[in-house]
Each structure stands twice: as C-alpha cells, then as structure tokens.
Amino acid sequence: MGLGAFTKIVGDAGITVAKNLNIPVTTGNSYTVATALESAKRAASLMGHNLKTIQVAVIGATGSIGSVCALSLSRDVKNLILVGRNETKLNLLADRIMYETGLAAEVTSNVKKALRKSDLVITVTSALDTIIEPEDLKPGAVVCDVARPRDVSKRVVEERNDVLVIEGSIVEVPGDVKFNFNFGFPPKTAYACMAETMILALEGRLESYTLGRELTLRQVDEIHKLGQKHGFKLAGLRSFEKPISEEEINLIKQRVIIKVS
Length: 261
Ligand SMILES: NC(=O)c1ccc[n+]([C@@H]2O[C@H](COP(=O)([O-])OP(=O)(O)OC[C@H]3O[C@@H](n4cnc5c(N)ncnc54)[C@H](OP(=O)(O)O)[C@@H]3O)[C@@H](O)[C@H]2O)c1
What we know:
Elements: H1 3-20, H2 29-46, E1 55-59, H3 64-73, E2 79-83, H4 87-101, E3 106-108, H5 111-116, E4 120-123, E5 142-145, H6 154-159, E6 164-166, E7 170-172, E8 189-191, H7 192-202, H8 217-229, E9 233-234, E10 237-239, E11 242-244, H9 246-260
Helix pairs in contact: 2-3, 2-7, 2-8
NADP nicotinamide-adenine-dinucleotide phosphate binds next to helix 1, helix 2 and helix 3.
C-alpha cells in the first residue's frame, strides 16, 4: 500500500476515532503543507528565483494536499500551472483560485509539458511510480517532492546536477527532546505531521484539528504561526534522504549559469 492510500485510511480512521472516542485526533497534514511550502520557497530563493516572475507548477493539484498548496501559492506567485488528471476538478480549482485571489492559473493534464517550463515544482501526487524523470526538468528548476512514494525518480539526482530536488516537511523540534525512535533523521528532528500533534499539545489545544480530506488555508496558516511561536523550525533542506547545504545549492546555481552562458 502506498503512503497516499495509507494516509487516506489513517485520515478516515481519524474521523471515526474522533467521533466515537474522547480522543483528539489530527492527521498533521496542515503543518505538512505549511512546512513543504516554506521549504520550497526557501529553496527557490537560494536558487535565485523570484516568486513573482518565475513559473510555478503544482503536480497533483486536485488532491487533498495539492489543492491547498495551490491555493496558498496563488497568494504569492504570478504564474501558476495546476497539473492533474481530471479536467473538471482542475477547472473547479482554477475557478476557486480566480475567485479567491484574482490569479488566472493555467490548467493541464500534461505533466511533462508543465515540467519543461517550470522553475518551481511542488509535486504531491499519489502515483505509485515516479512521474518526474531527468529529461523533464528545466535547468535551475527546484522540485519539492512531498509525495510518498516519491514522484521524482532517483535518476534525477544521478543525471541532473543543475536542478535542486528537496523533500519538504521535516522540522526541528524545540527543547531537549528524545523520541527514543529512529525516524532516520538527526536527533530532535521529526516529520511535520508528527510535529503538528506536539504543537497542538504545547498550545493546550486538546482538540481534533486536521481531519479528513478538506484541508483549509486558515488551519495551514494558523499551525504555521503556532509552530513558530513554540520554536519549531525547518530542519534545513534535505534531498534524497540527505541534508543539502547552501554551498551545494550554490554549486547547482553556478552550473546553471555556466550552462546558459
Ligand atoms: N511528506 C509527508 O509528510 C506527507 C504527508 C501526507 C501525505 N503525503 C503524500 O502526499 C501525496 C498526496 O496525498 P493526498 O492526501 O493529497 O492524496 P490525494 O488527495 O489522493 O491526491 C493525489 C493527487 O495525485 C493525483 N495523481 C494520482 N496519480 C497520478 C499520476 N499517475 N499522475 C498525475 N497525478 C496523479 C490525483 O489525481 P486524480 O484526482 O486524477 O486521482 C490527485 O490529484 C501522497 O503521495 C501522500 O503519500 C506526504
């Protein structure tokens, strides 16, 4: 079973638990979105991209996480492509974005076409196989791969040293915390979805928070602010399970400059 299907089952189970037991439940998806977008914007800025001028794409835009990512980004960017498989759902989302922010987003079901012209890509599909290959990407592109399993092929990191692929949603937890569990991260770091539970507990919000498929921008913004208030922050940028430093990102940037000059 893919993590997409798993998160759906957990999300549905969360609603059942919240309805039938006196236990607050959250999927953690609001903080996942907030931190993925923060990572993507930081990576884009380090690569020298200006959100107001670059082409941005959300792949899997009609999904639960993708649609709230697209809505949030539409407040910051000027050129947005929504990529999905269902044209009706894509058009509904584009209409909503136009209504809420005045931005005219492009829609397409052609992933490759969207990738070839995009400088910043947030990819959040529930595809079981990779959908982003080395030949698809523009030099200098930044890709934030939130999907599990990954949307970006491992070949990208092997064959394209002029693009930056990051994984969003890994945060540094404040205080002298020991999880006594190996997430495969350095100490004091956790998935944002788990951190959402910690933030709610620290804030004394012992209530069910993110539940079901409909994520709201209000909750994404709120949990982001609460996370900052309690000292949670991005745990640096990571690419294919490893930390990536600003020096390494600068090298990627230099290769793009050499390629185009
Ligand atoms: N990193 C984390 O901490 C974290 C946390 C939660 C979830 N996730 C991951 O985030 C992803 C999205 O989750 P979700 O809950 O938003 O799922 P979702 O609501 O099911 O949305 C998935 C989206 O992907 C699209 N899609 C599926 N297969 C595709 C393909 N082959 N090509 C193009 N688009 C495709 C779907 O389009 P259709 O509408 O046409 O089916 C839909 O728009 C999953 O991979 C999940 O595991 C990661």
